[in-house]
Specification:
Elements (H helix, E strand, L loop, with lengths): L12 E3 L2 E5 L3 E6 L3 H6 L10 E5 L4 E3 L4 E3 L6 E3 L1 E7 L8 H4 L3 E9 L1 E2 H9 L5 H4 L5 E3 L3 E2 L9 E6 L2 E7 L7 H9 L8 E4 L7 E2 L5 E6 L5 E8 L1
Parallel strand pairs: 3-15, 5-11, 6-18
Antiparallel strand pairs: 1-2, 3-4, 7-10, 7-16, 8-9, 8-15, 9-11, 9-12, 13-14, 13-17, 17-18
């Protein structure tokens, strides 16, 4: 059976030292994984279990590409994150074995229509319209897991050269191994899945013309300009 019409495909993510690109299957995002960020948003941490939302893989944008200021919002926010790329299929994997499923790591941005998210929260509705939209998931080059181990590396984001967000990876409430294990008890994780692991404090609004630069020590940095309103 052939398709009736072509549909957009998600981009291949560059991998350091490899000619092939990393194909994307799904994008999972972790909410409130840094206590300071949860506090600045007026939330507390539920330490019983992490929680997730998703973004469409077709919403992925590679570092260096401009992203349009999205429609429907007047409060467009940046969230810098460590991204985990899954390279092995796992289901109900123990924490002690979870890291074997990780292919590599990258720097990412979870872009958010914050005003729409607040409306959804107030009405106890899903966050999709605030999180899962076009060009909402920026990502940089992937570094293989054998060349990077998450620890206390600095994670940061600057807007037009001015520091906005800063933290350490060991400030995450749930570690990479814990997230992979927990998520695998609800999904059959497969090669091509991405996990955006949450953002430190300092999130804030951006406007057209701003340039966002994000870093995690030991990984390829990202840079993304904000274009005109869509």
């Amino acid at each position: 059976m052939s398709p009736l019409f072509p549909v957009p495909s998600s981009p291949l993510i560059p991998v350091a030292g490899v000619s092939e690109g990393f194909p994307v299957h799904r994008i999972f995002c972790v909410g409130r994984n840094y206590a300071a960020h949860a506090a600045e948003m007026g939330n507390t941490i539920d330490r019983a279990a992490p929680f997730y939302f998703t973004k469409p893989p077709t919403g992925l944008v590679l570092s260096g590409e401009a992203i349009a200021y999205p429609p429907g919002t007047e409060d467009y926010h940046h969230e810098i994150e460590l991204v985990v790329a899954i390279g092995q299929p796992v289901f109900k994997v123990p924490v002690e074995q979870a890291m074997a499923a990780v292919y590599g790591y990258a720097v990412g941005l979870d872009m958010t229509r914050r005003d729409l998210q607040q409306v959804a929260k107030d009405k106890q509705r899903p966050w999709d319209i605030a999180k899962a939209f076009e060009q909402s998931a920026v990502i940089g080059e992937i570094t293989a897991a054998d060349a990077f181990t998450p620890g206390n590396q600095r994670i940061s984001l600057a807007v037009n050269g001015a520091l906005r967000q800063e933290g350490r990876l060991d400030e995450m409430v749930w570690s990479v191994a814990e997230l992979v294990s927990h998520l695998s008890h609800y999904y059959h994780l497969t090669p091509g899945d991405l996990i955006y692991t949450g953002t430190p404090s300092g999130v804030g609004a951006v406007v057209s013309g701003d340039v966002l630069t994000g870093e995690v020590e030991g990984l390829s940095p990202i840079s993304t300009p904000i274009g005109p309103k869509a």
